[in-house]
Design brief:
The protein is mostly helical. Helices cover 45% and strands 9% of the residues. Helix 1 crosses helix 3. InterPro entries: ScpB_csome_segregation, WH-like_DNA-bd_sf, WH_DNA-bd_sf.
């Protein structure tokens, strides 16, 4: 049996040369039957390598198909420039379908369509199966025997997951709009729009008041009809004012006559 340090170097070299995840069974197969290490020893070696890689640009990660050496995600912006081709972009419909399969598996195509409210394109299912992210695991025991879809270990490898238990919980998946409302963030696409009444300042609200209509004029203002003449109400008011002035003049005239009459009898 090789020494512990030699075993460690063999495991490290195998993971680096493979370029893909290796399971414990595959690592054991590297050795002759009499020199085959126990799985417990392999896990201890892998734990030591994990500690050795702390603070470095690479790490050992356990995913669906086993263990692999990979570049740390924080260095991907630089390392990705080594390849000319760009990573494929997937539609929202494809990602929604994949998410439903991951969280509700096993699930039929019809059930996916019922949840999404739209039909699932055949190209989406074909893409997911060709990428080996999804596979048929059985058929629902209902008329038509629809296929049941579930995710694969390749799905776990691609998304850097050890198992489905590492998927974020549905409670952690928050709607972006609800987050914006909680943080009172404005949609950048709507910044040019006029603010709502609740968002306007008091000065803006005053400026936005409508023009005062005829029936909202102050009492001392006399409205006019469409012909430019004063209304009937104003004419009645003027007649009343004229009558009061006339009575006042007559009273003053009587007082003057009485005064003159008194002087005549003195």
């Amino acid at each position: 049996m090789s020494s512990n340090e030699t075993l460690k170097q063999i495991i490290e070299a195998a993971l680096l040369a493979a370029g893909r995840p290796l399971s414990l069974d595959q690592l054991q197969a590297l050795f002759e039957k009499e020199d085959e290490p126990e799985k417990k020893s392999l896990r201890e070696i892998l734990a030591e390598l994990t500690e050795d890689y702390l603070g470095r640009g690479i790490e050992i990660r356990e995913v669906g198909n086993g263990f692999r050496i990979q570049v740390r995600s924080e260095f991907s912006p630089w390392v990705s420039k080594l390849w000319d081709e760009r990573p494929p972009k997937y539609s929202r419909a494809l990602l929604e379908t994949l998410a439903l399969i991951a969280y509700r598996q096993p699930i039929t195509r019809g059930e996916i369509e019922d949840i999404r409210g739209v039909s699932v394109s055949t190209n989406i299912v074909k893409t997911l199966t060709e990428r080996e992210w999804v596979r048929v695991v059985g058929h629902r025991d209902v008329p038509g025997k629809p296929a049941l879809y579930a995710t694969t270990k390749e799905f776990l490898d691609y998304f850097n997951l050890k198992g489905l238990s590492e998927l974020p919980t549905l409670a952690e998946i928050r709607d972006l709009d609800s987050i914006n409302r909680e943080l009172e963030l404005k949609d950048p696409d709507k910044l040019d729009e006029e603010p709502t009444e609740s968002e306007q300042t008091p000065d803006e609200v005053m400026d936005a008041q409508p023009v005062v209509e005829t029936d909202q004029l102050e009492e001392n203002e006399i409205p006019e009809d469409e012909s430019g003449q004063k209304s009937e109400h104003s004419t009645v008011s003027e007649t009343q004012d004229t009558s009061v002035d006339a009575e006042k003049d007559e009273l003053e005239a009587d007082q003057i006559d009485q005064a003159e009459t008194g002087r005549l009898y003195e």
